[in-house]
Structures are given as structure tokens and as C-alpha cells.
């Protein structure tokens, strides 16, 4: 028997179904589940992680485990696009074992905790939840901050939980609960498998209107360089062959980011890594990039969003296009792969600004570009603004998907969904099928030995459709 089971829903086919970026979708062991598991293990309880995303028959696998393990408590983490899938799984578990306590976590839960527990979930967790699974097993729930739960037909809200100030106090994640050999997948998102996720900081001090900060907030909190590299050594020992940094703002503190690189270099650690979620172009310099390259970083990802300065100002990004050009130029000069993140349908967008975005992506000579359609996610300034103007047409959470247009979800203030879709499709064709891009990458693949790799990935895409 197992005291607690932590579940990652099968998200890949839901979020990336029928999209042009499915081949780039990372299939990797989530970080938050082993973070939650470690304090439970340290308290003497038995814990199991079920990653349904890698199972051929997720429902059957889940049912077999619930029947065999008879868990006291089950936690499910999910984002807004996965809300209905998470509720479906919770309902399935309740039918199999009605006494199991079901706990919901993640950004969506933190935004709508009382709505989440109207269904099959017993508890919704708000804020940072590193120790919550342990506390639910060991404490009176009313004494645990950051919970919303049902009791005798009433809804109890225990108030806001305090954020963890010193991230060095966090235990190392229980990565051993995963079977890492099952994550050897071919993907554009990494070079070596299995890749492991690492956070070196929490909180983002910036105010982009499309970003939800309901869990980690805007206060920038960090792990020390020594703790970061201690954790890297632990991950490499466990069996990860690549590290993907999840920080929203890895280089907000330039001095600390450089010190992390120095620590990796001083310990003579050899492994590929890169900042997965995108760095800000105003929070890096050539010295940092030089240190990152020497420390084994092979790819620079940048949150560029748009080729229009007017739109950048409208979304409160706080950067300018010259900073974008400088960051990409420095990265290319130092031999990094470059990946830019872009969005279509932002507030203030026009056909001309979307053309500017495509033009900029090509002008920068990026190795990769990822284009998304803007979705006003609940809990963001953008959602609240458009909702107040009557532009949100439905709150059917099953439609909140970054990679596909949702005609019934919202009305854009200045554009039709047909127009946004047109430029979304045009962006991939125009970027990846330009003669100069094809020639440049063919020569690069020949030089670096990745030609067969890229051909295999290309054949898995649907960019020609």
C-alpha cells in the first residue's frame, strides 16, 4: 500500500494535438511532483509518482495502481487546458476508491480554488505547495495555510500561504521515483535524453500582461550558486544527461547567474544545458553569454514576443527591439543555437504588426522560432481587461490552448480569428521554408552531425498542411 500518489495527467495529446509544434513538445519527468514527494518520504510515508503522459493506456494504468496501492491521498497537478482532464481523472479515482482524498494543485487551481473543489476534488492548494502533501497527512487542515477544502458541506479557506524565502532550505527532489529510462525521446526540445528540469529561482518581477503569477509571485527569490550546482551534480548522478532550467528570469541577477556558470566551470562538470523558458533580452550581457557557453550551455532561448515596438509597449514587456537584436547577435557570435518565442494576436495587434513579427524572426537568423496564438489565461491582466470589455465569450476551460485558435473563446479587440490563424500558419511556412534558412541549417547540420536527426524530426511535423 502507498500513502500518497502524485499524478501528472496525459497532457501531450491534449495540449499539442493537431498543432505544428507537437514534435517539439518535451516529454520529460515533471519537477513539481518529486518536489512534493520528498518531504512526504522524509516524514516516513510511502509515495508513488504516476506519469500518465508516458503510458499507452493511462486510464487502465491509473485504475490498476489505485486498486493495488489503496492510497490515502492523491495529488493531481494541472494547468488550465488540462482542467477537465484532471477532473475526469479525479472522478475516476473516486469511483474506484471513494475514501481517497483528492488534492488539486497548479496555477489554475491557485486561480480558481473554490471552483475546482465543486467537482470531485476534496482540497485545492493555493500558492507554493512544497510541503503540503506531507502536511495534509500529518496536520489539522485548518492549521495549514494556502488550502481551500470542503467540510460538512461548507467551504473552508485557510488564507494565503507564505512564500519560501530561502530556496536553499528546500530538500532535493525525489527524482528516484521516476523510471528515467522511459524518457529517452527524440525531440526538438533537447539534445540528450533524459533531460531534467531545474529551478534556480522563483518569482518574476516583471509585469507582462499575459503572464499568471498567482503561485510564485513577483518577488525574485533565488538558490545560491553552490546549491544550484550541488543540485546539478545530484541530477547527473541520478541519471539525467541534460539540464533544462525552468526559471522565468534566470539572469535577473546577472552577478548570480555568472557565479552559477563559474561554479559549473570550477567543478569541471560536462553536460549540455539551456534556459528552457526564455531569457529576457534586457537581463543579459556578452560576459554572461560567454560564461554560459564555457559552462556547457548550448542554446539561448529568448522571449521576444513580437516584432512591433508598439505592441511590446502595450503588453508591458519592458524591452526594445535593439536589445533583441543585440542579444541574438551576441548569441550567434558565440556559437549558440538560438530560439525565439513569439506570439500572434496580442493586444494592439494588427496585420502590419504580425508581418513585422515574421520579418523580425527571419531577419534575426534564428535557428528556431516558436510562434503561439495569444490566449488570455484566467488570472492574467490580459484576461481581466478583455473580460471587463465583454470580449471573453466563454469560460469553457477546455478551450484554453496556446497552440490552436479558439473562435468561441474570445473576440480580439482589433482582429478576426481567421486573420490571426492566417498569420500563425504563415509564420511557420515563411520562417522554416525560406531558402536561406534551409541552406543555413543544412550546412550547420552537416557541420555538427545533426542532419539525420533533423530529417527525422521534420518528417514528424505537419508544417506543410
Protein described:
The protein is of the alpha/beta class and 465 residues long. The chain contains 17 helices and 15 strands. It has 3 domains: 4-157, Cobalamin-binding domain (Rossmann fold), CATH 3.40.50.280; 172-437, tm_1862 like domain (pyruvate-formate lyase- activating enzyme, Alpha-Beta Horseshoe); 438-465, no CATH class. The protein has helices at residues 12-15, 32-42, 58-69, 83-96, 107-111, 113-116, 132-138, 225-238, 254-266, 286-294, 309-314, 321-333, 351-363, 381-388, 417-432, 435-448, 451-459, and strands at residues 4-8, 47-51, 73-77, 101-105, 123-125, 147-151, 154-157, 195-198, 201-202, 221-222, 242-245, 273-275, 299-305, 337-344, 368-373. It has a 7-stranded mixed β-sheet, sandwiched between helices. A 3-stranded parallel β-sheet has the order 8-11-12, covered by helices on one side. The longest helix has 16 residues, at 417-432. The chain is globular. It starts with a strand and ends in a 6-residue tail after the last helix.
Can you tell me the CATH superfamily of the largest domain? tm_1862 like domain
CATH class of the largest domain: Alpha Beta
Which bin fits the share of residues in helices?
25-40%
CATH topology of the largest domain, anyone? Answer: pyruvate-formate lyase- activating enzyme
As a percent range, the share of strand residues is: 5-15%
Q: Main sheet?
A: 7 strands, mixed
Strand order of the largest sheet: 2-1-3-4-5-6-7
- The structure class reads alpha/beta
Structure annotation, total helices: 17
Q: Total domains, how many?
A: 3
Strand tally, please?
Answer: 15
Weakly predicted, low-confidence segments:
15-23
Backbone shape: globular
Mean pLDDT: 89
Gyration radius from CA atoms, angstroms:
22 Å
Instruction: Report how far apart the termini are.
Output: 49 Å
CATH architecture of the largest domain: Alpha-Beta Horseshoe
Amino acid at each position: 500500500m502507498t500513502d500518497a500518489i502524485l499524478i501528472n495527467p496525459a497532457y501531450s495529446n491534449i495540449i499539442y494535438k493537431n498543432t505544428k509544434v507537437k514534435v517539439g513538445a518535451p516529454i520529460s519527468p515533471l519537477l513539481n511532483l518529486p518536489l512534493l514527494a520528498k518531504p512526504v518520504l522524509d516524514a516516513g510515508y510511502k509515495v508513488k509518482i504516476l506519469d500518465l503522459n508516458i503510458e499507452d493506456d493511462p486510464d487502465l494504468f491509473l485504475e490498476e495502481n489505485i486498486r493495488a496501492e489503496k492510497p490515502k491521498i492523491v495529488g493531481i497537478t494541472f494547468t488550465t487546458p488540462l482542467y477537465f482532464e484532471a477532473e475526469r481523472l479525479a472522478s475516476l479515482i473516486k469511483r474506484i476508491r471513494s475514501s481517497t482524498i483528492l488534492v488539486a494543485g497548479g496555477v489554475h487551481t491557485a486561480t480558481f480554488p473554490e471552483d475546482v473543489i465543486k467537482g470531485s476534488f476534496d482540497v485545492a492548494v493555493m500558492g507554493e505547495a512544497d510541503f503540503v502533501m506531507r502536511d495534509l497527512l500529518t496536520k489539522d487542515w485548518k492549521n495549514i495555510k494556502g488550502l481551500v477544502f470542503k467540510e460538512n458541506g461548507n467551504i473552508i479557506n485557510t488564507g494565503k500561504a507564505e512564500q519560501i524565502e530561502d530556496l536553499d532550505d528546500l530538500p532535493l527532489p525525489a527524482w528516484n521515483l521516476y523510471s528515467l529510462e522511459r524518457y529517452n525521446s527524440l525531440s526538438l526540445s533537447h539534445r540528450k535524453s533524459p533531460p531534467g528540469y531545474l529551478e534556480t529561482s522563483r518569482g518574476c518581477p516583471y509585469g507582462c500582461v499575459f503572464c499568471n503569477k498567482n503561485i510564485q509571485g513577483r518577488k525574485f527569490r533565488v538558490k545560491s550558486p553552490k546549491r544550484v550546482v550541488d543540485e546539478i551534480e545530484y541530477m547527473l548522478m541520478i541519471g539525467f544527461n541534460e539540464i533544462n532550467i525552468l526559471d522565468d528570469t534566470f539572469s535577473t541577477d546577472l552577478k548570480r547567474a555568472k557565479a552559477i556558470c563559474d561554479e559549473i566551470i570550477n567543478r569541471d562538470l560536462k553536460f549540455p544545458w539551456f534556459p528552457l523558458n526564455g531569457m529576457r533580452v534586457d537581463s543579459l550581457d556578452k560576459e554572461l553569454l560567454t560564461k554560459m557557453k564555457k559552462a556547457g550551455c548550448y542554446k539561448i532561448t529568448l522571449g521576444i514576443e513580437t516584432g512591433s515596438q508598439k505592441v511590446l509597449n502595450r503588453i508591458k514587456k519592458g524591452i526594445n527591439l535593439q536589445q533583441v537584436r543585440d542579444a541574438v547577435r551576441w548569441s550567434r557570435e558565440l556559437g549558440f543555437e538560438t530560439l525565439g518565442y513569439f506570439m500572434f494576436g496580442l493586444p494592439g495587434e494588427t496585420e502590419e504588426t504580425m508581418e513585422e513579427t515574421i520579418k523580425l524572426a527571419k531577419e534575426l537568423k534564428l535557428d528556431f522560432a516558436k510562434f503561439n496564438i495569444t490566449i488570455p489565461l484566467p488570472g492574467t491582466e490580459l484576461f481581466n481587461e478583455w473580460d471587463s470589455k465583454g470580449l471573453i465569450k466563454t469560460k469553457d476551460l477546455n478551450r484554453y490552448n496556446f497552440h490552436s485558435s479558439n473562435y468561441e473563446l474570445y473576440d480580439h479587440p482589433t482582429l478576426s480569428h481567421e486573420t490571426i490563424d492566417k498569420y500563425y500558419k504563415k509564420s511557420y511556412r515563411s520562417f522554416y521554408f525560406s531558402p536561406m534558412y534551409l541552406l543555413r541549417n543544412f550546412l550547420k547540420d552537416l557541420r555538427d552531425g545533426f542532419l539525420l536527426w533533423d530529417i527525422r524530426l521534420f518528417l514528424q511535423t505537419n508544417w506543410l498542411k
